[in-house]
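User: Please run a holo structure prediction.
Assistant: Happy to. Please share the sequence and the ligand.
User: Here you go; the ligand is nicotinamide-adenine-dinucleotide.
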Amino acid sequence: MEPSDAGAPPDLRVGQHRAGRHGRTDPGRGRRRPAHTGGGAVTGPAAADDAATAGEAAAAGDAPAAGDAATGDAATQHSPLQHISVGGRYDVHIGPGALTCLTGHLSPGRRVMVLHQPGRAALVGEVVDLVASAGGQGLTHEIPDAEAAKEVTVLAGAWAALGRAGFTRDDLVVGVGGGAATDLAGFVAASWLRGVDFINLPTSLLGIVDAAVGGKTGINTAEGKNLVGAFHEPRAVLCDPAWMASMSRPDLVSGLGEVIKCGFIADPTILELIEADPQAVCDPAAPVMTELIARSVRIKAEVVENDLTEAGIREILNYGHTFAHAIEQVEHYSWRHGDAVAVGMVFAAELAVRVGVMDPELLARHRSVLDSVGLPTSYAGADWEQLRAAMARDKKARGATLRFIVVSEAGVTQRLVGPDEALLREAFDAVSASH
Ligand SMILES: NC(=O)c1ccc[n+]([C@@H]2O[C@H](COP(=O)([O-])OP(=O)(O)OC[C@H]3O[C@@H](n4cnc5c(N)ncnc54)[C@H](O)[C@@H]3O)[C@@H](O)[C@H]2O)c1
Ligand SMILES: [Zn+2]
């Protein structure tokens, strides 16, 4: 038995006869589904509440929904600015005018160091103006674009800027940019004087739905990505979708990969919103964008409020990521993360169908929804042996045993441990073939 399975109720485990050939599936933290009738793979009880909300699905029913999330869909759809609490520790403000929520964190004399990507000048100017009108002292420090921001030399440069400014424990770091900028800003804040406040202003879709919320901060080393980091939660996260208007379409679409992931693991309404109008969801100005972001952030918030350090439930956020990380490795990070996650979800779905936990219609839905926004659903690069070796190296793998999150129905996850090698190979063949 895997150590992390220790807390799972024994009556929800898969029958032993399946374990030899197919590996073992345990209920993940999603809403429980009725026993699978096709293959008899899952022996768990019927779902207790088929009307469970996304929040309940994400939180496995053992934690209260986060903040405004508890107020439900009506509030969600009518409020232009949404506030999502992360465990009561900090809020994520999403929607037009979100920047106004910075004011509560400013005060006379407080220094604010804005660490920002190039090209975000208008937003940086607005932040500095707000700081000045609150009587604070706004400072700016530009960092390189994208992954180049996450180098130790950039970290040292930011420390030097803080030192020159006489930055104290009472001051505030603000990260402005995509996930690379907020990862760096968070790590600067975590390490300066052993931890100062920081606020994230993510300007990319992937940044807001994945990187800026959750408290993981970090930089890269020559040996690999994100090898150095700290858990350090922001004081707030602010995101106005209007900031994304300048994003390139491929970057925006890549972010949708993580949004769609949230749909499959916890909130099928996300899938319905995308299916209803795949064009609108590629437009940051469309009202549905605020809705999609808020729904995705709510899931992450509910997961991380209970599992900051990734011990259990946070695992569901890794849906599609085992295969995605392998693609990223063998492609030397030339693939956008959300694109790799899209293919990774199709791989996991192909696997889930073969193990007997997913119906083929849900697999087809993976391909159709991803394809509708222009995300890739197949991979024709490295061969299976290279990808299999890369999966074994993934830091989330435990020893030789591969672990996958699989989806049994939209919004319901299970854990698949040690699937049969032949099925992995079949799933690979299916994603490398064009459909
Ligand atoms: N901390 C976490 O939990 C976590 C989770 C997921 C990803 N990440 C990290 O996030 C990074 C990926 O995030 P990302 O895709 O946002 O990367 P990024 O910051 O490199 O941004 C991608 C590109 O989009 C551009 N961009 C961002 N906002 C823009 C805007 N408003 N207009 C025009 N261009 C804009 C950036 O300049 C960059 O070129 C990686 O470093 C990854 O490790 C962290
Ligand atoms: Zn991801």
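DSSP finds 15 helices and twelve strands in the chain.
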